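Quick one, probably user error.
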């Protein structure tokens, strides 16, 4: 049996497909499992032992469809459910099972602040697509395989190489990030050495936070690669993070995680921490929250209460827990 699993984006959504691939590979005899995604997300499945082949989206959809046809798949598991995957299924004629996005329920929930989408994790929603093959969720965490064994002494100063807390301060959109002043206030009360993680887009933020706090913080934003950042997360004693891919990847290593949410909510998308023994979701109830599914460039009402009013002590207590 030969199966193609499809999910094009984004980082968080793709990382939650890994249990599906693992369960297909471990529960079906003599199965060959392939995965199709965008080239930008190739790294998520690099070194994954449960995957037989990784296909990358070609410059044109026609080229991708020709490659899929040549592989002669028995089944296509569509975990994206958009126009492109619909065209792929139509033009290849492969038997398929498709993830139900519940678009109308999500739109109504967002527009009218209703709770029409059950708080079922995205992994469980994905797993429904392979139920017809008698494949069941194995109850294990997501998979992420670090590309190389990094040397922590080359990544962090001696003062931060053990018992450090990783604080992931990056996120794609403004309404997912906590303001610098609030991060500074929280970090000033954390007992452990702190390593700030994120991309180039928050390198200046990290610098401002580190300057305000002093030697207890090391700013690795924009300095470490993604794989190095994942490695550091896997070695951290605790993790604080916003709604962003690296925070979700951290779940693969079962570190204690505090997942901090602003304008978005995990229940709507089903992306609360998955199979993490010690996890806390931190966010506050507001009539204007969520203001979007994926985040915005500014608070629509201008007050940004969803982040500004998060009780700092809740985060501090989690960070300082023995």
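Nope, works fine. Designed sequence:
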């Amino acid at each position: 049996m030969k199966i193609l699993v499809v999910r094009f984006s984004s980082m968080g959504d793709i990382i939650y497909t890994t249990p599906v691939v693992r369960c297909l590979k471990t529960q079906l005899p003599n199965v060959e499992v392939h995965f199709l995604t965008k080239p930008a997300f190739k790294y998520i499945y690099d070194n994954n032992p449960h995957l037989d082949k990784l296909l990358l989206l070609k410059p044109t959809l026609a080229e991708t469809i020709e490659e899929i046809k040549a592989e002669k798949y028995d089944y296509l598991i569509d975990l994206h459910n958009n126009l492109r995957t619909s065209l792929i299924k139509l033009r290849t004629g492969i038997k398929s099972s498709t993830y139900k996005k519940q678009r109308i329920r999500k739109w109504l929930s967002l527009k009218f602040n209703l709770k029409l989408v059950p708080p079922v994790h995205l992994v469980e929603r994905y797993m429904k697509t392979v139920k017809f093959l008698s494949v069941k969720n194995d109850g294990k965490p997501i998979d992420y395989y670090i590309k190389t064994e990094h040397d922590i002494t080359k990544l962090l100063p001696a003062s931060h190489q053990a018992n450090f807390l990783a604080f992931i301060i990056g996120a794609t959109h403004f309404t997912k990030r906590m303001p610098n002043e609030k991060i500074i206030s929280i970090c000033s009360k954390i007992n452990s050495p702190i390593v700030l993680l994120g991309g180039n887009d928050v390198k200046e933020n990290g610098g401002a936070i580190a300057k305000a706090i002093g030697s207890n913080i090391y700013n690795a934003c924009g300095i470490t690669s993604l794989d190095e950042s994942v490695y550091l997360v896997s070695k951290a004693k605790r993790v604080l993070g916003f709604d962003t891919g690296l925070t979700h990847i951290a779940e693969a290593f079962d570190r204690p995680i505090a997942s901090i949410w602003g304008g978005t909510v995990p229940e709507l998308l089903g992306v609360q921490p998955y199979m993490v023994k010690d996890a806390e979701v931190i966010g506050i109830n507001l009539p204007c929250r969520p203001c979007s599914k994926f985040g915005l460039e500014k608070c629509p009402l201008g007050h940004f209460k969803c982040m500004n009013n998060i009780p700092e002590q809740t985060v501090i207590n989690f960070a300082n827990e023995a």
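The chain has two domains: 2-133, 152-320.
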